[in-house]
Every structure is written in structure tokens, then in C-alpha cells.
Amino acid sequence: MLTVSGLKTFYGNSQALFGMSLEVKAGEVATLMGRNGMGKTTTVHSIMGIVPANSGDIHFEGEAIRGLAPYSVARKGIGLVPEGRQVFPNLTAHENLVATAANWGKLSNPWTAERVYDLFPGLAERRSSMGNLLSGGEQQMLAVGRALMTNPKLLILDEATEGLAPLIRDEIWKSLEALKSEGLSILVIDKNVKDLARIADRHHIVEKGKVVWTGSSAALLANEDLMHRYMGV
Ligand code: ATP
Questions:
Q1: I need a labelling partner for 166 at 20 to 30 A (CA). Which of 5, 53, 61, 111 fits?
Q2: Could you tell me if residue 121 is inside a domain?
Q3: Which residue's C-alpha comes closest to atom 3 of ligand 1?
Q4: What is the pLDDT of residues 23-33, one digit of tens each?
Q5: Total domain count, the chain
Q6: What domain range is 226 assigned to?
Q7: Which candidate, 228, 225, 159, 226, places its Cα nearest to that of 192?
Q8: If you ran DSSP here, which 8-state letter would residue 92 be given?
Q9: Cβ pair 45, 20 in contact under 8 A
Q10: What number of other Cβ atoms are within 10 A of residue 70's Cβ?
Q11: What pLDDT does residue 24 have?
């Protein structure tokens, strides 16, 4: 579904990606892991066209998308849950959801606010609260819901559980498992290796702007040296 190969991205003269390559197959959950500053967010921003890559290829459903503007990438069917949530503070939870609603891919059973509330019942009770008055966990659920309202075929989550209490984190993981069972493809960037190993099919470990290891959950968990060396776990 998504294939990234040989991506090189710069901030001015400073190179952040050195030939980044990764793959997400249809219906699978893939991860991007690695220590801070290794290029995970830059990879996501390059995929989305927020920080355009200077060279390399990005194919989504067989179509070359490198160089497209972020709104075009979103319309192709990639939904981003950005690092830091970035909910609209001066809109209610419900308004946050409907503000981004779109179905460019003409999916047959499009997301509605009610479906998001079914996925996150706690959010339903807070539907009339302003974005800035929601807890961190509620804002994170809203950020996931807001991305779903664009009816993506691939959902990308950048550090979606950062700073959340374990119970809330579990709720986010449960929602991803539910979305996976509905056939959504998902790319997750996160530091909770054990949780990711439970729900993901394919892992990519990033070091200094490129993938240095890729494999299954079983292979990841069996390799303590790998986790210690590249993730400090
Ligand atoms: P984190 O988990 O801390 O977000 P990351 O793996 O997502 O880390 P990136 O944020 O992609 O890493 O950063 C990769 C490299 O690019 C780092 O060296 C970082 O300092 C640099 N970088 C990131 N954003 C910018 C920017 N806006 N301008 C210049 N350099 C940047």
C-alpha cells in the first residue's frame, strides 16, 4: 500500500534522512521505531509532503506521491495523527471532528462523529467541551477521530501515546486493534516496544535517517541486543 524507498530529506543544508525505506502492506500495522532525533517525524512529514524530500520515491497504492502538497496526499487517502495532537483549541470536540470530515476516496461506509464516539465512548460525553479543556487522553482520541473523519486508507500515528497514563494508552492500542480488524492499514511511531510487538505485523528500526533493521514482532522480541542498541530499552 505504501512503499518508501531511498528518501533523502534536508532542513536547509542539514540532512535528516539518508535513504529512508519502509513498507506498509494493505491491512497491516507497521511501526517506525528508534531513539529521539533519528528521523521518524521527518519521514512522516516527507510522506505527507509537509517537509518535501529532495530525492527518493514514495508510492501509495501504486501511485508516485513524492512532491505532492499535503492536502493532495491527504486526499489520496493518508490520514495523519500528528505528534502533539494539535486539536483546534477553540472548537468543541464535536466541531473538531466535523471540521475535517471528507470522503474523497468515496469509501462505502464513511466515518461519522457517531462512529468515532462508538470507538471512544469517553469522547462522546465530552462532545460539547472546547478542545483546550479536554484531557491529554481525550485530545489524543480526538486527534485519532479527526484523522478517521477524513476516511483514510492508511492512518499514520506519530507518538500517539506519548505522555498518556497506561490505562488511556491501552484505550488507544485497543482502538488501533479494532481499526486493524476493519482492514485499515496503519503506520505507528511509538516507543512502547512491547505494546507494538503485540499489535503490529512489521517493524522498522530507524538510526540516523535510515532503516537499519526490519522484521516481525517475534524476531524483534527475540533480539535483545537490537532493542538495547537502537532503542535504549
Ligand atoms: P523525536 O522522537 O524526538 O521526534 P524523530 O526520530 O522523530 O525524533 P526527527 O524529528 O525527524 O526525529 O529529527 C531528525 C533530525 O532532523 C534531527 O537531527 C533533528 O534535529 C532534525 N530536525 C528536525 N526538525 C528540524 C527542523 N525543523 N529544522 C532543522 N532540523 C530539524
A1: 111
A2: no
A3: 36
A4: 999 999 999 99
A5: 1
A6: 2-88+154-231
A7: 159
A8: B
A9: no
A10: 16
A11: 97
CB 39 near ligand 1, within 6 Å: yes
pLDDT digits (tens, 9 = 90+) for 128-170: 999 999 999 999 999 999 999 999 999 999 998 888 999 999 9
Residue type for position 10 = F
CB 61 within 8 Å of CB 138: no
Look at residue 233 in the predicted model and tell me its pLDDT: 64
Residue 96 lies in a domain: no
CATH number at residue 70: 3.40.50.300
Q: Please compute the mean of the pLDDT values over residues 184-207 and round it to a whole number.
A: 93
Nearest to 170 by CA among 140, 135, 145: 140
Question: Residue whose CA is closest, atom 23 of ligand 1?
Answer: 42
Which of 40, 42, 156, 212 has the most ligand 1 atoms within 8 A of CB, as the residue to mutate? 42
Which ligand 1 atom sits nearest the alpha carbon of residue 44? 11
* Structural domain contains residue 13: yes
- Ligand 1 atom with least separation from CA of 41: 7
All cell numbers assigned to 28: 497491516
Across 92-105, average pLDDT = 93
Residue 94 lies in a domain: no
